[in-house]
């Protein structure tokens, strides 16, 4: 406490001696520095990270009710606050997360009228920063409208960027100085001239629709594309968030977005349990060797439940149409179609200790009353909801997302959103029952397949935003496209499908294939069977965006490591120095065969074991478009 007080007094002394309205902000260890100053009568900021300039003379401010808060304004220092805390995550990349930052708060007032102002809040972490605008009730008057974001972030030198691209392969790589520059969605990932990385995203999206980034300006600047509506009550914008790292893996490991959100609002979240789930949707039409055909009915659901109960799988997701055509306003989600007996299914699953997740389309939720539907799901015994195809403009989706999550929490239901509807933004800290979003291209979704390069860059771009539902884990790669809900042949190798389950961070690990296909390759499926319901830690061992990625996940004293390559066959050397010294592990290595290929030899694999410790340098080989999965089982000391 004494040290913090001395630090605060020192900072206040600096501010009092500095030029009026010019400020220097620093992160707790000083690695990050932001300067706020006036240049040509406009307010500007510059950002230095590890003594390298990231942004130079960036114009800064808002146009509010026709007043330009980017110039002719005064900054009054309000407060400096150091925070260093640790909180427990229910569905996080790590089980415990440190939240260590220095916060600066300013009042930005118009020189011509001091009653016109807003609060500007910066938070500086050692690995990134964020800022937001706060409009208290005393400045709202009758109403207030943010007409434009005036901020223009001027980059030092050229750079390369990638960005989220919906259910398509991600945008990039694009060189900023090229003719291909464009407006992009978030997260936007930037490789700087010194080969360091930065990701731009936003946190605590609760008021307005998500922003996008304009990388098409004539200079090297980046501009926010925003859409605001009029407000008559106090409000805060989302946090404009910037993650920084020496390599791309640092951005993936970052918890900056979660830390910028409010603490958990659920008084007792002990009922929230992430896990693995079977899924009926893509299995429909699958014919087994005993001549059974999977359909949308309770008999099929019981087959799933039987397999789940015997194989360390916690849930079954019953997807669309179980209560009628999902887009029909006459389909009532408080009842079910002929052949589907939800109450019988729930009772059977409860006896087998398997939870049931029910699909809910936005049409049915709004037609029959969201709360009434969720209450019915809860009374039936459901553990969660997959919510699909939310309608409305961007701001309406933000508000409705919050409504769905809060009501699900009221009825002790976890929730996974299909088809976005807004980006993951760290909000699973506040509402840990929000376990995942489909924020990318899930294999076989959108009636098309994705190729290995998408599998490689998705965890290095999309996953920066938060937990994803991408339904990995296909075993029947050669024939799945003959089913009713699989429309194209699936490229990839079966080992890569196992590796994706480790690489992709998600609250629900949704498995898309049939129990029979998993049973056919039981020795390979054992890697999935051994995976925990929830991991404790995530480390990026090695990665090169668009080329390969290796991620390690911890479970108790064991580790799982997943690696993926693009269309090129590849050999990687894995460094195990992250393991504790003097501890031994038995490594079960699931790998592509020597001739595995993502198009013409997908299901060939081999399994071997060897001892591993922290000094091991292990070479792994992946076929073209393939992968590698390793289970490190801790060996107890004798």
TrEMBL record:
GO terms for molecular function: carbohydrate binding. Its cofactor is Ca(2+). Signal peptide: none annotated. The keyword Calcium applies. Residues 535-633 form the Glycosyl-hydrolase 97 C-terminal oligomerisation domain. Residues 25-263 form the Glycosyl-hydrolase 97 N-terminal domain. Keywords: Calcium. The keyword Calcium applies. It comes from the Bacteria. InterPro entries: Aldolase_TIM (IPR013785), GH (IPR017853), GH-type_carb-bd (IPR014718), GH97_C (IPR029483), GH97_catalytic (IPR019563), GH97_N (IPR029486), Glycosyl_hydrolase_97 (IPR052720). Residues 284-438 form the Glycosyl-hydrolase 97 catalytic domain. Monomer. This is Alpha-glucosidase.
